[in-house]
Amino acid sequence: MNKPIGVLIVEDSEDDALLLLRELRRGGYEPVCERVETHEALKAALENGRWDIVISDYVLPGFSGLAALNILKESGQDLPFIIVSGNIGEDIAVAAMKAGAHDYIIKGNLTRLVPAVERELREADVRHEKQRAEEELKVERQRAEKALKEANETLERCVAERTAKLAQSEAELQRSNSDLQQFAYIASHDLQSPLRNVEGFVKLLARRYKGQLDAKADEFILHISNGVKDMQMLIRDILEYSKVDSGGKMFASVDMSLCVNKAISNLRAEIDEKNAEITHNETLPVVYGDAIQLTGLLQNLIGNAIKFSQEQPKVHISWKREGNRAVFTIQDNGIGMDMKDTDKIFAVFHRLHSKSEYPGTGIGLAICKKIVERHGGLIWVESEGEKGSTFYFTLPMKE
Ligand SMILES: Nc1ncnc2c1ncn2[C@@H]1O[C@H](COP(=O)(O)OP(=O)(O)O)[C@@H](O)[C@H]1O
Ligand SMILES: [Mg+2]
Questions:
Q1: Could you report the per-residue pLDDT of 271-322, keeping only the tens digit for each?
Q2: Is the Cβ atom of 314 under 6 angstroms away from ligand 1?
Q3: Residue 334's closest CA among 298, 300, 306, 303?
Q4: 290 three-state secondary structure
Q5: Mutation test of ligand 1: which of 308, 369, 383, 393 has the most ligand atoms closer than 8 Å to its C-beta?
Q6: Distance 234 CA to ligand 1 centre (A)
Q7: Is the CB of residue 10 less than 8 Å from the CB of residue 27?
Q8: C-alpha closest to that of 371 among 184, 263, 245
Q9: Calpha distance 242→15 (Å, rounded)
Q10: Apex CA 294: angle with CA 288 and CA 295, to 5°?
Q11: How confident is the model at residue 1 (pLDDT cuts 50, 70, 90)?
């Protein structure tokens, strides 16, 4: 059975067209054909039909093979275009091929027609297959790009939403923190004056009536004045804690050896009482911070090292440089602590010992943490139980 083929013939001679068709039939094809001989007719045929090949004469009255080739190109269809013509000479044939014709056959020798058609159909198939694959690849790529773009947009939106939420909750946290600190500041500040009144009158009571009432009354008076002292200490510490952020000084160069000396001199009474030995590296660095707060930090840590000990306290302060920060250590030979408690002790009011064993409010290390954090540093502790504790903190160094 012959293979069907859609042939569009551009030819003014009906006879020549019939010859072509006969040749194709002989070659095993069953042509479905239309013959056109004008510009408009070719255009219309290309628009309306589905063709496998165009076979065109080279010269027609008022039309030409090259003009037909142009129309085919403009139509956007990639069909094999074979010129079948009288002898037009090699130069013109070459020019026609350069213009895009696929082959050139002389009317007097149609035996080449069928092989040429076969070859061109095959090549057109390959071309179309390639175009289809490229087209599919393009669509696939566009789809992937679109999916990627959408995924990116979703991700960016999520990140932006989260960042906004975080910023909002951070701002809220900061606001409520500073509200709380302000409240603590005002409350503790305002408590001082009535407490001073109580202190004054208890002292008066003790001075005037000690020994004149019964023994119980003297004991009660003692309890009241001890309570007043505890409360004063507590209020002083809360006040100090609430002032770390708002009451701090501007940062400047701070010579840490001056801070250590000042802290030691502030702790003179405690040091003498327990005959404590405080040593430090020969030189201590210059850091960037608030000298008063850094003195307070050292005083708290050295004070604890002296307080939480049962033998003669030995405290050593040293430091080392790590990049652009200084890491300080304060090592003692005191009672030490369980490693499971080392995080908790920096929280406000958290103590590992009762007030009767070791006096205190449990605020000192919370103040230390706040001071170190205000300086952009870290604070932590390590302990090997009975062998004592080592507190570490970091501070930015002056460039
Ligand atoms: N050098 C230390 N050795 C052992 N325990 C310590 C040391 N420093 C602090 N601690 C423990 O951490 C707790 C919290 O310390 P701190 O906040 O300074 O409160 P305070 O000194 O008022 O008790 C202390 O009660 C104590 O249990
Ligand atoms: Mg303390």
A1: 999 999 999 998 999 999 999 999 999 999 999 999 999 899 999 999 999 9
A2: no
A3: 306
A4: coil
A5: 308
A6: 15
A7: no
A8: 245
A9: 110
A10: 135
A11: confident
Span 81-134, pLDDT tens digits: 999 998 878 888 888 899 999 999 999 889 999 999 999 999 999 999 999 999
Pairing of strands 3-10, 53-56: parallel
Report the DSSP beta bridge partners of residue 316: 279, 331
Q: What distance in angstroms lies between residue 199's CA and the mean position of ligand 2's atoms?
A: 24
- Burial readout 179-212 (b: 16 or more C-beta within 10 A, e: otherwise): eebeebbeebeebeeebeeebeebeebeeeeeee
Instruction: Annotate 163-198 with three-state secondary structure.
Output: HHHHHHHHHHHHHHHHHHHHHHHHHHHHHHHHHHHH
Cα dihedral sign for 73, 77, 79, 85?
negative
Strands 379-383 and 389-396: antiparallel
Whose atoms come closest to the Cα of 234: which ligand?
Answer: 1
Contact 117, 138 (CB under 8 A): no
Pocket test residue of 274, 340, 351, 382 for ligand 1, highest count of atoms within 8 A of CB? 351
Ligand 1 center to 352 CA (angstroms): 7
